[in-house]
Automatic annotation (TrEMBL):
Biased amino acid composition, Basic and acidic residues: 145-162
Name used for this protein in its record: Uncharacterized protein
Taxonomy, superkingdom: Bacteria
Secretion signal, residue range per the UniProt entry: 1-22
Disordered, as annotated region: 141-162
UniProtKB keywords: Signal
Length: 162
């Protein structure tokens, strides 16, 4: 299979921009190192404040591996950059979006995309929040449970001017 086609096909199936793709947790044997205490989840009325900042999701689906970083801004905008590889071919995807919360639903609409054939402008993504803390964001999307980890403690307020 053509590596670029494999990447596009896999990513299109997930349709997960701007919060691009994470892999469900697979149970593993406990490690000897002490585990970090998880941050307590926040209440739904605090979702908007806690969601602000940058989150990383990792994926491995068939021949495609990669990660994305999505940043939610206070002004209701978001940016996402994904870097993926399949069969030795690398691809980067960027997107801009606007986001809103309706109770436990995060609704994101693509406003700009570097790959409109995969993420057309106007595409809406709905994620049902399972839990959200300062360190971890768990949700379901298209029937899959996904997890993202906070990558920065800073919480940007607006999209930088061009």
């Amino acid at each position: 299979m053509n590596p670029r086609f494999a990447i596009l096909t896999t990513l299109a199936l997930f349709a997960a921009a701007p919060t691009v793709i994470a892999e469900p947790a697979i149970p593993t044997a406990p490690k000897e190192a002490p585990k970090e205490t998880p941050a307590p989840p926040v209440k739904p009325e605090e979702y908007a404040k806690t969601l602000l900042g940058s989150w990383r999701s990792d994926m491995k689906e068939g021949p495609v591996t990669g990660h994305s970083i999505t940043t939610y801004l206070e002004d209701g905008k978001a940016t996402s950059t994904g870097n993926f590889e399949a069969g030795g071919q690398k691809i980067s995807v960027t997107a801009k979006a606007k986001w809103t919360l309706e109770k436990d639903k995060l609704i994101t609409e693509i406003t700009d995309s570097s790959m409109p054939e995969m993420m057309p402008v106007g595409t809406k993504i709905e994620q049902t929040i399972l839990s959200l803390s300062d360190k971890e964001f768990r949700y379901t999307q298209s029937g899959k449970e996904l997890t993202e980890k906070r990558v920065k403690d800073e919480k940007p307020k607006a999209v930088p001017a061009k």
